[in-house]
Amino acid sequence: MSFDGAFTHAMVTELQQTLTGGRVAKISQPYPNEVVLTIRNNSQNYPLLLSAHPTYARLQITRIPYANPATPSNFTMMLRKYLDGSILNSLEQVENDRIVRLAFNTRNELGDQETIALTIEMMGRHSNVFLIEQSDNRILDLIKHVNPDQNRVRSLLPGAIYIAPPKQDDVNPFTTSANVDDLVRDYPNEDVLAKQLQQTFQGLARDTALGLAGALHATDGSVEDRFTHFFAQFNQPVPTLNRLKNGKTSFSAFAMPTPNLDDTQTFATLSELLDFFYQDRAERERVNEQAGNLIHIVRNELKKNRSKLKKLQQTMAETNQADSFRIKGELLTTYLNQVKRGMTEITLPNFYDDEKPLKISLSNQIGPSQNAQKYFNRYQKLKNAVAYVTEQIRLTQTEIDYLSNIQAQIELASPKDINEIRLELQQQGYIRVHRKRGSKKPRLQISQPEKFHASDGTLISVGKNNLQNDKLTLHTAKKTDIWLHVKNMPGSHVIIHSADPSDETIDEAANLAAYFSKARDSASVPVDYVQVKRVHKPNGAKPGFVIYEGQQTAYATPDAELVKKLRS
Protein backbone atom coordinates (compact mmCIF):
# COMPACT_ATOMS: atom_id res chain seq x y z
CA MET A 1 0.00 0.00 0.00
CA SER A 2 1.21 3.47 -0.79
CA PHE A 3 1.04 6.36 1.65
CA ASP A 4 -2.25 7.42 0.03
CA GLY A 5 -5.30 9.11 1.48
CA ALA A 6 -6.64 5.90 3.01
CA PHE A 7 -3.36 5.11 4.77
CA THR A 8 -3.16 8.75 5.88
CA HIS A 9 -6.59 8.27 7.49
CA ALA A 10 -5.28 5.30 9.47
CA MET A 11 -2.11 7.17 10.48
CA VAL A 12 -4.04 10.25 11.62
CA THR A 13 -6.35 8.06 13.72
CA GLU A 14 -3.32 6.49 15.40
CA LEU A 15 -1.56 9.83 16.00
CA GLN A 16 -4.70 11.47 17.38
CA GLN A 17 -4.88 8.87 20.14
CA THR A 18 -1.18 9.22 20.98
CA LEU A 19 -0.36 12.92 20.57
CA THR A 20 -3.45 15.10 21.08
CA GLY A 21 -2.99 17.27 24.16
CA GLY A 22 0.79 16.88 24.16
CA ARG A 23 3.30 19.73 24.47
CA VAL A 24 6.01 20.53 21.90
CA ALA A 25 9.27 19.92 23.78
CA LYS A 26 11.81 20.08 20.97
CA ILE A 27 11.96 21.09 17.30
CA SER A 28 14.64 19.90 14.86
CA GLN A 29 15.21 19.87 11.12
CA PRO A 30 17.84 17.15 10.65
CA TYR A 31 17.40 17.04 6.85
CA PRO A 32 16.43 19.68 4.26
CA ASN A 33 12.92 18.32 3.63
CA GLU A 34 12.12 16.84 7.05
CA VAL A 35 11.12 18.25 10.43
CA VAL A 36 10.92 16.43 13.75
CA LEU A 37 8.66 17.76 16.52
CA THR A 38 9.24 16.01 19.83
CA ILE A 39 5.84 16.02 21.54
CA ARG A 40 5.65 15.09 25.20
CA ASN A 41 2.38 13.46 26.21
CA ASN A 42 1.46 11.12 29.05
CA SER A 43 5.04 11.34 30.42
CA GLN A 44 6.57 10.11 27.17
CA ASN A 45 8.41 11.79 24.30
CA TYR A 46 7.15 11.13 20.77
CA PRO A 47 9.38 12.32 17.88
CA LEU A 48 6.85 13.24 15.18
CA LEU A 49 8.39 13.23 11.70
CA LEU A 50 6.88 15.48 9.02
CA SER A 51 8.60 14.60 5.77
CA ALA A 52 8.19 16.58 2.55
CA HIS A 53 10.66 14.32 0.75
CA PRO A 54 9.73 14.04 -2.96
CA THR A 55 9.83 10.22 -2.80
CA TYR A 56 9.19 9.33 0.85
CA ALA A 57 6.76 12.05 2.02
CA ARG A 58 5.00 10.87 5.19
CA LEU A 59 3.81 11.65 8.71
CA GLN A 60 4.74 9.33 11.57
CA ILE A 61 6.34 8.90 14.96
CA THR A 62 9.94 7.83 14.33
CA ARG A 63 12.48 6.17 16.60
CA ILE A 64 15.28 6.25 14.02
CA PRO A 65 18.10 8.37 15.52
CA TYR A 66 19.24 11.45 13.66
CA ALA A 67 22.01 14.03 13.98
CA ASN A 68 20.79 17.56 14.57
CA PRO A 69 22.71 20.16 12.47
CA ALA A 70 24.90 22.59 14.40
CA THR A 71 23.23 25.59 12.76
CA PRO A 72 19.40 25.54 12.63
CA SER A 73 17.69 26.51 9.38
CA ASN A 74 15.46 29.58 9.05
CA PHE A 75 12.40 27.34 8.97
CA THR A 76 13.50 25.66 12.20
CA MET A 77 13.90 29.06 13.86
CA MET A 78 10.39 30.07 12.79
CA LEU A 79 8.95 26.81 14.12
CA ARG A 80 10.72 27.33 17.45
CA LYS A 81 9.50 30.91 17.64
CA TYR A 82 5.85 30.01 17.21
CA LEU A 83 5.52 26.40 18.40
CA ASP A 84 8.07 25.83 21.16
CA GLY A 85 6.10 24.88 24.29
CA SER A 86 2.74 24.96 22.48
CA ILE A 87 -0.01 22.38 22.98
CA LEU A 88 -1.18 20.15 20.12
CA ASN A 89 -4.89 20.84 20.15
CA SER A 90 -5.98 18.79 17.13
CA LEU A 91 -4.61 16.67 14.31
CA GLU A 92 -6.97 16.25 11.35
CA GLN A 93 -6.90 15.00 7.79
CA VAL A 94 -8.41 17.18 5.07
CA GLU A 95 -11.16 15.05 3.50
CA ASN A 96 -9.44 11.80 2.44
CA ASP A 97 -6.54 13.66 0.86
CA ARG A 98 -2.84 13.43 1.72
CA ILE A 99 -3.09 16.68 3.67
CA VAL A 100 -2.93 16.80 7.46
CA ARG A 101 -3.38 19.91 9.59
CA LEU A 102 -1.99 20.10 13.13
CA ALA A 103 -3.43 22.93 15.26
CA PHE A 104 -1.36 24.21 18.21
CA ASN A 105 -2.49 26.46 21.06
CA THR A 106 0.20 28.97 22.02
CA ARG A 107 0.63 32.53 23.26
CA ASN A 108 2.02 35.45 21.28
CA GLU A 109 4.52 38.05 22.48
CA LEU A 110 1.73 39.96 24.28
CA GLY A 111 0.61 36.85 26.11
CA ASP A 112 -2.63 36.49 24.14
CA GLN A 113 -3.69 32.98 23.18
CA GLU A 114 -3.59 32.15 19.48
CA THR A 115 -3.76 29.13 17.21
CA ILE A 116 -0.92 28.24 14.85
CA ALA A 117 -1.38 25.51 12.27
CA LEU A 118 1.26 23.23 10.80
CA THR A 119 0.01 21.72 7.56
CA ILE A 120 1.78 18.93 5.70
CA GLU A 121 0.96 18.11 2.08
CA MET A 122 2.31 14.68 1.09
CA MET A 123 2.13 14.87 -2.71
CA GLY A 124 5.31 13.54 -4.23
CA ARG A 125 7.62 16.23 -5.57
CA HIS A 126 5.02 18.86 -4.61
CA SER A 127 5.16 17.86 -0.92
CA ASN A 128 5.55 20.72 1.53
CA VAL A 129 5.17 21.72 5.19
CA PHE A 130 3.47 25.05 6.01
CA LEU A 131 3.50 27.11 9.21
CA ILE A 132 0.23 29.07 9.13
CA GLU A 133 -1.33 31.83 11.26
CA GLN A 134 -4.80 30.37 11.64
CA SER A 135 -6.61 33.67 12.32
CA ASP A 136 -5.98 35.03 8.82
CA ASN A 137 -4.69 31.86 7.08
CA ARG A 138 -1.39 33.61 6.32
CA ILE A 139 1.74 31.54 5.60
CA LEU A 140 4.40 32.39 8.18
CA ASP A 141 6.97 30.13 6.53
CA LEU A 142 7.23 26.85 4.65
CA ILE A 143 9.93 24.22 4.25
CA LYS A 144 10.14 24.66 0.45
CA HIS A 145 9.83 28.13 -1.06
CA VAL A 146 8.44 27.98 -4.61
CA ASN A 147 8.80 30.87 -7.06
CA PRO A 148 5.59 32.17 -8.70
CA ASP A 149 6.79 31.14 -12.16
CA GLN A 150 6.97 27.52 -10.94
CA ASN A 151 3.43 27.49 -9.54
CA ARG A 152 0.88 29.90 -10.99
CA VAL A 153 -2.09 28.29 -9.22
CA ARG A 154 -1.18 29.45 -5.69
CA SER A 155 1.59 31.40 -3.99
CA LEU A 156 4.01 29.28 -1.94
CA LEU A 157 6.00 31.99 -0.20
CA PRO A 158 5.98 33.49 3.30
CA GLY A 159 3.32 36.21 3.70
CA ALA A 160 0.94 34.72 1.13
CA ILE A 161 -2.53 33.46 2.00
CA TYR A 162 -2.59 29.68 2.24
CA ILE A 163 -4.71 28.18 -0.52
CA ALA A 164 -5.35 24.45 -0.48
CA PRO A 165 -4.40 22.39 -3.55
CA PRO A 166 -7.10 22.25 -6.25
CA LYS A 167 -9.93 20.01 -5.07
CA GLN A 168 -10.90 16.96 -7.11
CA ASP A 169 -14.49 15.87 -7.80
CA ASP A 170 -13.91 12.49 -6.08
CA VAL A 171 -15.95 11.55 -3.00
CA ASN A 172 -14.63 10.62 0.45
CA PRO A 173 -15.00 6.82 0.84
CA PHE A 174 -15.11 7.17 4.65
CA THR A 175 -18.32 9.21 4.46
CA THR A 176 -20.20 7.76 1.46
CA SER A 177 -20.21 4.64 -0.67
CA ALA A 178 -21.58 6.60 -3.69
CA ASN A 179 -22.69 4.29 -6.52
CA VAL A 180 -20.42 1.39 -5.64
CA ASP A 181 -23.16 -1.20 -6.48
CA ASP A 182 -23.34 0.10 -10.04
CA LEU A 183 -19.56 0.05 -10.40
CA VAL A 184 -19.27 -3.60 -9.29
CA ARG A 185 -22.08 -4.61 -11.64
CA ASP A 186 -20.71 -2.68 -14.63
CA TYR A 187 -17.04 -3.69 -14.19
CA PRO A 188 -16.64 -7.41 -13.37
CA ASN A 189 -12.88 -7.30 -14.10
CA GLU A 190 -10.94 -6.38 -10.93
CA ASP A 191 -8.24 -4.35 -12.72
CA VAL A 192 -10.82 -2.28 -14.59
CA LEU A 193 -12.94 -1.90 -11.45
CA ALA A 194 -9.89 -0.68 -9.53
CA LYS A 195 -9.33 2.10 -12.09
CA GLN A 196 -12.97 3.17 -11.82
CA LEU A 197 -12.78 3.17 -8.02
CA GLN A 198 -9.73 5.47 -8.22
CA GLN A 199 -11.65 7.86 -10.45
CA THR A 200 -14.71 7.81 -8.16
CA PHE A 201 -13.27 7.86 -4.65
CA GLN A 202 -10.74 10.22 -3.13
CA GLY A 203 -7.29 9.16 -1.87
CA LEU A 204 -6.98 5.64 -3.32
CA ALA A 205 -3.63 4.56 -4.71
CA ARG A 206 -3.47 1.71 -7.20
CA ASP A 207 -2.71 -1.02 -4.62
CA THR A 208 -5.51 0.17 -2.28
CA ALA A 209 -7.97 0.27 -5.18
CA LEU A 210 -7.00 -3.29 -6.18
CA GLY A 211 -7.50 -4.48 -2.60
CA LEU A 212 -10.91 -2.80 -2.50
CA ALA A 213 -11.87 -4.28 -5.87
CA GLY A 214 -10.98 -7.77 -4.60
CA ALA A 215 -13.03 -7.23 -1.44
CA LEU A 216 -16.04 -5.98 -3.42
CA HIS A 217 -15.98 -9.07 -5.64
CA ALA A 218 -16.31 -11.38 -2.63
CA THR A 219 -19.58 -13.25 -2.17
CA ASP A 220 -20.43 -12.70 1.49
CA GLY A 221 -22.89 -9.90 2.39
CA SER A 222 -23.96 -6.98 0.25
CA VAL A 223 -21.59 -4.87 -1.83
CA GLU A 224 -22.18 -1.87 0.43
CA ASP A 225 -21.45 -3.92 3.57
CA ARG A 226 -18.18 -5.16 2.04
CA PHE A 227 -17.28 -1.58 1.10
CA THR A 228 -18.01 -0.31 4.62
CA HIS A 229 -16.09 -3.19 6.23
CA PHE A 230 -13.06 -2.56 4.02
CA PHE A 231 -12.72 1.07 5.12
CA ALA A 232 -13.63 0.32 8.75
CA GLN A 233 -10.36 -1.66 8.94
CA PHE A 234 -8.42 1.61 8.54
CA ASN A 235 -9.81 2.71 11.93
CA GLN A 236 -8.42 -0.41 13.64
CA PRO A 237 -5.35 -1.21 11.53
CA VAL A 238 -3.12 -4.27 11.76
CA PRO A 239 0.16 -2.80 10.40
CA THR A 240 1.50 -5.35 7.92
CA LEU A 241 4.76 -5.65 6.00
CA ASN A 242 4.41 -7.73 2.81
CA ARG A 243 7.46 -9.57 1.49
CA LEU A 244 7.11 -10.49 -2.17
CA LYS A 245 8.68 -13.42 -3.99
CA ASN A 246 10.86 -11.08 -6.06
CA GLY A 247 12.53 -9.86 -2.84
CA LYS A 248 10.73 -6.51 -2.69
CA THR A 249 8.57 -5.34 0.21
CA SER A 250 5.43 -3.24 0.60
CA PHE A 251 3.32 -2.12 3.54
CA SER A 252 -0.40 -1.95 4.26
CA ALA A 253 -2.66 -0.87 7.10
CA PHE A 254 -4.03 -4.43 7.29
CA ALA A 255 -3.60 -7.71 5.46
CA MET A 256 -5.09 -7.71 1.99
CA PRO A 257 -4.64 -9.94 -1.09
CA THR A 258 -1.24 -9.14 -2.65
CA PRO A 259 0.09 -10.71 -5.89
CA ASN A 260 3.30 -12.80 -5.52
CA LEU A 261 3.12 -12.59 -1.72
CA ASP A 262 5.79 -14.67 0.02
CA ASP A 263 5.49 -13.70 3.70
CA THR A 264 4.02 -11.07 6.03
CA GLN A 265 5.11 -9.44 9.28
CA THR A 266 2.90 -7.41 11.62
CA PHE A 267 3.85 -4.48 13.87
CA ALA A 268 2.37 -2.88 16.97
CA THR A 269 1.85 0.53 15.30
CA LEU A 270 1.82 2.04 11.83
CA SER A 271 4.79 4.22 12.82
CA GLU A 272 6.88 1.16 13.75
CA LEU A 273 5.94 -0.39 10.40
CA LEU A 274 7.10 2.71 8.50
CA ASP A 275 10.33 2.95 10.49
CA PHE A 276 11.12 -0.63 9.50
CA PHE A 277 10.07 -0.13 5.87
CA TYR A 278 11.73 3.23 5.26
CA GLN A 279 14.88 2.92 7.39
CA ASP A 280 17.25 1.77 4.63
CA ARG A 281 15.47 3.52 1.74
CA ALA A 282 15.12 6.92 3.41
CA GLU A 283 18.61 6.63 4.93
CA ARG A 284 20.15 6.15 1.49
CA GLU A 285 18.22 9.11 0.07
CA ARG A 286 19.27 11.31 3.01
CA VAL A 287 22.90 10.34 2.47
CA ASN A 288 22.62 11.13 -1.24
CA GLU A 289 21.10 14.53 -0.40
CA GLN A 290 23.83 15.43 2.06
CA ALA A 291 26.70 13.88 0.12
CA GLY A 292 25.71 14.98 -3.39
CA ASN A 293 28.72 17.27 -3.84
CA LEU A 294 31.06 14.72 -2.20
CA ILE A 295 29.94 12.00 -4.60
CA HIS A 296 30.55 14.39 -7.52
CA ILE A 297 34.03 15.33 -6.25
CA VAL A 298 35.09 11.72 -5.63
CA ARG A 299 33.79 10.54 -9.02
CA ASN A 300 35.65 13.32 -10.83
CA GLU A 301 38.88 12.63 -8.94
CA LEU A 302 38.58 8.90 -9.66
CA LYS A 303 37.97 9.57 -13.35
CA LYS A 304 40.97 11.92 -13.51
CA ASN A 305 43.31 9.48 -11.74
CA ARG A 306 42.17 6.49 -13.79
CA SER A 307 42.86 8.42 -17.00
CA LYS A 308 46.26 9.40 -15.62
CA LEU A 309 47.04 5.78 -14.72
CA LYS A 310 46.11 4.63 -18.22
CA LYS A 311 48.50 7.16 -19.78
CA LEU A 312 51.29 6.20 -17.38
CA GLN A 313 50.82 2.53 -18.23
CA GLN A 314 51.03 3.39 -21.93
CA THR A 315 54.27 5.29 -21.26
CA MET A 316 55.61 2.31 -19.32
CA ALA A 317 54.75 0.01 -22.23
CA GLU A 318 56.69 2.33 -24.51
CA THR A 319 59.78 2.02 -22.30
CA ASN A 320 59.88 -1.66 -23.23
CA GLN A 321 60.90 -0.47 -26.70
CA ALA A 322 63.89 1.46 -25.34
CA ASP A 323 66.40 -1.23 -26.38
CA SER A 324 65.14 -1.11 -29.98
CA PHE A 325 66.11 2.59 -30.15
CA ARG A 326 69.56 1.84 -28.71
CA ILE A 327 70.11 -0.94 -31.28
CA LYS A 328 69.11 1.35 -34.15
CA GLY A 329 71.48 4.05 -32.89
CA GLU A 330 74.35 1.57 -32.66
CA LEU A 331 73.65 0.17 -36.14
CA LEU A 332 73.63 3.67 -37.62
CA THR A 333 76.91 4.48 -35.86
CA THR A 334 78.53 1.24 -37.09
CA TYR A 335 77.41 1.70 -40.71
CA LEU A 336 77.60 5.49 -40.70
CA ASN A 337 79.44 5.53 -44.05
CA GLN A 338 76.41 3.92 -45.73
CA VAL A 339 74.01 6.60 -44.47
CA LYS A 340 73.63 9.60 -46.77
CA ARG A 341 72.04 12.94 -45.93
CA GLY A 342 68.54 13.23 -47.40
CA MET A 343 67.65 9.52 -46.92
CA THR A 344 64.29 8.78 -45.24
CA GLU A 345 65.08 5.14 -44.37
CA ILE A 346 67.81 2.53 -44.59
CA THR A 347 68.00 -1.25 -44.11
CA LEU A 348 71.04 -2.55 -42.22
CA PRO A 349 72.12 -5.99 -40.97
CA ASN A 350 71.27 -6.39 -37.24
CA PHE A 351 74.31 -7.99 -35.58
CA TYR A 352 72.19 -8.46 -32.43
CA ASP A 353 69.83 -10.75 -34.36
CA ASP A 354 71.91 -13.02 -36.63
CA GLU A 355 72.49 -10.26 -39.18
CA LYS A 356 68.80 -10.11 -40.08
CA PRO A 357 67.96 -6.95 -42.08
CA LEU A 358 66.41 -4.15 -39.99
CA LYS A 359 64.64 -1.17 -41.55
CA ILE A 360 65.46 2.13 -39.80
CA SER A 361 63.52 5.38 -40.38
CA LEU A 362 65.61 8.52 -40.91
CA SER A 363 64.99 12.26 -40.97
CA ASN A 364 66.06 13.84 -44.26
CA GLN A 365 66.52 17.21 -42.49
CA ILE A 366 69.58 16.14 -40.48
CA GLY A 367 72.85 14.32 -41.15
CA PRO A 368 73.76 10.63 -40.47
CA SER A 369 75.40 11.19 -37.07
CA GLN A 370 72.51 13.36 -35.91
CA ASN A 371 70.05 10.59 -36.85
CA ALA A 372 72.07 8.11 -34.78
CA GLN A 373 72.19 10.56 -31.85
CA LYS A 374 68.41 11.04 -32.12
CA TYR A 375 67.86 7.31 -31.47
CA PHE A 376 70.31 7.36 -28.54
CA ASN A 377 68.46 10.37 -27.06
CA ARG A 378 65.09 8.58 -27.32
CA TYR A 379 66.61 5.51 -25.68
CA GLN A 380 68.06 7.55 -22.80
CA LYS A 381 64.79 9.47 -22.29
CA LEU A 382 62.79 6.26 -22.01
CA LYS A 383 65.31 4.67 -19.64
CA ASN A 384 65.26 7.76 -17.42
CA ALA A 385 61.44 7.69 -17.46
CA VAL A 386 61.19 4.17 -16.02
CA ALA A 387 61.94 5.15 -12.42
CA TYR A 388 59.75 8.27 -12.57
CA VAL A 389 56.82 6.50 -14.27
CA THR A 390 57.04 3.56 -11.86
CA GLU A 391 56.78 5.95 -8.89
CA GLN A 392 53.92 7.87 -10.52
CA ILE A 393 52.01 4.65 -11.18
CA ARG A 394 52.43 3.69 -7.52
CA LEU A 395 51.22 7.10 -6.30
CA THR A 396 48.31 7.19 -8.72
CA GLN A 397 47.20 3.67 -7.78
CA THR A 398 47.38 4.67 -4.10
CA GLU A 399 45.18 7.67 -4.89
CA ILE A 400 42.66 5.47 -6.74
CA ASP A 401 42.56 2.98 -3.86
CA TYR A 402 41.98 5.80 -1.38
CA LEU A 403 39.21 7.43 -3.44
CA SER A 404 37.56 4.03 -4.05
CA ASN A 405 37.59 3.54 -0.29
CA ILE A 406 35.95 6.95 0.24
CA GLN A 407 33.36 6.12 -2.43
CA ALA A 408 32.53 2.86 -0.65
CA GLN A 409 32.25 4.68 2.69
CA ILE A 410 29.76 7.16 1.22
CA GLU A 411 27.70 4.27 -0.16
CA LEU A 412 27.61 2.64 3.30
CA ALA A 413 27.40 5.83 5.38
CA SER A 414 24.56 7.03 7.54
CA PRO A 415 23.73 10.76 7.37
CA LYS A 416 25.70 11.55 10.56
CA ASP A 417 28.87 10.06 9.01
CA ILE A 418 28.87 12.42 6.01
CA ASN A 419 30.26 15.45 7.87
CA GLU A 420 33.37 13.53 8.94
CA ILE A 421 33.94 12.28 5.39
CA ARG A 422 33.62 15.88 4.20
CA LEU A 423 36.15 17.02 6.84
CA GLU A 424 38.57 14.32 5.74
CA LEU A 425 38.32 15.41 2.09
CA GLN A 426 38.98 18.97 3.22
CA GLN A 427 42.08 17.82 5.15
CA GLN A 428 43.35 15.96 2.10
CA GLY A 429 42.86 18.98 -0.15
CA TYR A 430 40.01 17.69 -2.33
CA ILE A 431 37.64 20.37 -1.01
CA ARG A 432 38.79 23.94 -0.65
CA VAL A 433 37.78 25.72 2.56
CA HIS A 434 37.43 29.49 2.48
CA ARG A 435 37.99 30.99 5.91
CA LYS A 436 37.98 34.63 6.86
CA ARG A 437 41.36 36.17 7.53
CA GLY A 438 42.30 35.75 11.17
CA SER A 439 39.68 33.06 11.85
CA LYS A 440 40.91 29.96 13.61
CA LYS A 441 40.92 26.56 12.02
CA PRO A 442 37.87 24.66 13.33
CA ARG A 443 38.68 21.97 15.84
CA LEU A 444 38.12 18.50 14.44
CA GLN A 445 35.64 16.44 16.45
CA ILE A 446 35.60 12.75 15.56
CA SER A 447 32.45 10.89 16.56
CA GLN A 448 32.46 7.54 18.27
CA PRO A 449 32.40 4.32 16.22
CA GLU A 450 29.22 2.29 16.24
CA LYS A 451 28.92 -0.20 19.10
CA PHE A 452 27.70 -3.79 18.80
CA HIS A 453 27.57 -6.68 21.26
CA ALA A 454 28.33 -10.27 20.35
CA SER A 455 26.02 -13.08 21.49
CA ASP A 456 28.22 -13.61 24.56
CA GLY A 457 28.18 -9.87 25.40
CA THR A 458 31.63 -8.98 24.07
CA LEU A 459 31.84 -5.38 22.84
CA ILE A 460 32.58 -4.90 19.12
CA SER A 461 33.34 -1.46 17.63
CA VAL A 462 32.94 -0.60 13.94
CA GLY A 463 34.49 2.50 12.36
CA LYS A 464 32.30 4.12 9.69
CA ASN A 465 34.89 6.36 8.02
CA ASN A 466 38.66 6.76 7.80
CA LEU A 467 38.91 9.24 10.67
CA GLN A 468 36.96 6.89 12.94
CA ASN A 469 39.01 3.92 11.68
CA ASP A 470 42.35 5.60 12.51
CA LYS A 471 41.19 6.73 15.94
CA LEU A 472 39.68 3.33 16.75
CA THR A 473 42.59 1.17 15.60
CA LEU A 474 45.56 3.37 16.49
CA HIS A 475 44.41 5.17 19.64
CA THR A 476 41.36 3.54 21.25
CA ALA A 477 41.86 -0.22 20.90
CA LYS A 478 44.16 -2.12 23.23
CA LYS A 479 47.18 -3.84 21.70
CA THR A 480 45.70 -7.22 22.68
CA ASP A 481 42.30 -6.56 21.07
CA ILE A 482 41.42 -8.28 17.77
CA TRP A 483 41.32 -6.20 14.57
CA LEU A 484 39.29 -7.31 11.52
CA HIS A 485 38.99 -6.03 7.94
CA VAL A 486 37.76 -7.49 4.64
CA LYS A 487 40.62 -8.79 2.52
CA ASN A 488 41.83 -6.53 -0.31
CA MET A 489 38.67 -4.42 -0.40
CA PRO A 490 37.39 -1.09 1.03
CA GLY A 491 35.63 -1.52 4.36
CA SER A 492 35.39 -0.63 8.04
CA HIS A 493 37.93 -1.35 10.74
CA VAL A 494 36.31 -3.68 13.28
CA ILE A 495 37.65 -4.19 16.80
CA ILE A 496 36.72 -7.03 19.16
CA HIS A 497 37.45 -5.65 22.62
CA SER A 498 38.82 -8.93 23.94
CA ALA A 499 42.22 -10.61 23.89
CA ASP A 500 40.74 -14.11 23.55
CA PRO A 501 37.30 -13.98 21.87
CA SER A 502 35.29 -17.12 21.18
CA ASP A 503 35.02 -18.54 17.66
CA GLU A 504 31.37 -17.42 17.59
CA THR A 505 32.36 -13.83 18.44
CA ILE A 506 35.03 -13.84 15.71
CA ASP A 507 32.43 -15.10 13.22
CA GLU A 508 29.97 -12.38 14.27
CA ALA A 509 32.63 -9.66 14.05
CA ALA A 510 33.68 -10.98 10.62
CA ASN A 511 30.04 -10.68 9.56
CA LEU A 512 30.06 -7.04 10.67
CA ALA A 513 33.29 -6.39 8.77
CA ALA A 514 31.82 -7.95 5.63
CA TYR A 515 28.50 -6.10 6.03
CA PHE A 516 30.18 -2.70 6.45
CA SER A 517 32.31 -3.09 3.34
CA LYS A 518 32.01 -2.96 -0.43
CA ALA A 519 31.31 -6.72 -0.31
CA ARG A 520 27.95 -6.26 1.48
CA ASP A 521 26.04 -7.99 -1.34
CA SER A 522 28.56 -10.83 -1.76
CA ALA A 523 28.74 -14.33 -0.31
CA SER A 524 31.64 -16.00 1.51
CA VAL A 525 33.65 -12.80 1.99
CA PRO A 526 37.26 -13.30 3.25
CA VAL A 527 37.93 -11.29 6.42
CA ASP A 528 41.43 -11.01 7.90
CA TYR A 529 41.81 -10.81 11.67
CA VAL A 530 44.87 -10.22 13.83
CA GLN A 531 45.86 -8.63 17.14
CA VAL A 532 45.96 -4.82 17.08
CA LYS A 533 49.68 -4.80 17.94
CA ARG A 534 50.39 -6.32 14.51
CA VAL A 535 48.60 -3.48 12.70
CA HIS A 536 50.73 -0.47 11.70
CA LYS A 537 50.28 2.75 9.76
CA PRO A 538 53.13 3.65 7.37
CA ASN A 539 54.55 7.17 7.61
CA GLY A 540 52.66 9.56 5.36
CA ALA A 541 49.91 7.06 4.56
CA LYS A 542 46.41 8.23 3.72
CA PRO A 543 43.75 8.20 6.47
CA GLY A 544 42.41 4.70 7.12
CA PHE A 545 45.35 2.92 5.44
CA VAL A 546 47.25 0.37 7.54
CA ILE A 547 49.46 -2.67 7.00
CA TYR A 548 49.44 -5.86 9.05
CA GLU A 549 51.10 -9.25 9.31
CA GLY A 550 50.50 -12.66 10.88
CA GLN A 551 46.76 -12.54 10.14
CA GLN A 552 44.25 -15.38 9.97
CA THR A 553 41.27 -15.40 7.61
CA ALA A 554 37.61 -16.12 8.32
CA TYR A 555 34.81 -16.27 5.76
CA ALA A 556 31.47 -14.54 6.28
CA THR A 557 28.28 -13.94 4.32
CA PRO A 558 26.85 -10.51 5.28
CA ASP A 559 23.57 -10.93 7.17
CA ALA A 560 21.46 -7.80 7.79
CA GLU A 561 19.30 -9.57 10.39
CA LEU A 562 22.38 -10.60 12.38
CA VAL A 563 23.67 -7.01 12.25
CA LYS A 564 20.36 -5.75 13.68
CA LYS A 565 20.51 -8.38 16.41
CA LEU A 566 24.10 -7.44 17.37
CA ARG A 567 23.22 -3.73 17.27
CA SER A 568 20.29 -4.14 19.69
Explained architecture:
- There is one protein chain.
- The protein has 568 residues and is α+β, with helices and mostly antiparallel strands.
- Helices cover 38% and strands 22% of the residues.
- The chain is built from 14 helices and 22 strands.
- It has helices spanning 5-19, 74-83, 180-186, 190-200, 206-216, 223-232, 270-290, 292-319, 322-334, 368-412, 415-427, 466-476, 503-515, 560-567, and strands spanning 23-31, 34-41, 44-51, 58-61, 87-93, 99-107, 113-121, 128-133, 138-142, 240-244, 249-252, 261-266, 345-350, 356-361, 450-453, 459-462, 482-486, 494-496, 525-531, 535-536, 547-548, 552-556.
- The strands form six sheets. It has a six-stranded antiparallel sheet with strand order 15-16-18-17-19-22.
- Helix 4 crosses helix 5 (206-216) and helix 13 (503-515) packs across helix 14 (560-567).
- It is elongated, with a radius of gyration of 34 Å.
- The model has no long low-confidence stretch (mean pLDDT 89).
Q: What is the overall shape?
A: elongated
Cα Rg: 34 Å
The largest sheet has its strands arranged as 15-16-18-17-19-22
Largest sheet: 6 strands, antiparallel
- Helix content class: 25-40%
Overall mean confidence score, pLDDT: 89
Question: Which oligomeric state applies?
Answer: single chain
The secondary structure category is alpha+beta
**Tally of alpha and pi helices:** 14
In whole angstroms, the N-to-C terminal distance is 29 Å
Please provide the count of β strands. Answer: 22
Strand content: 15-25%
Low-pLDDT segments:
none
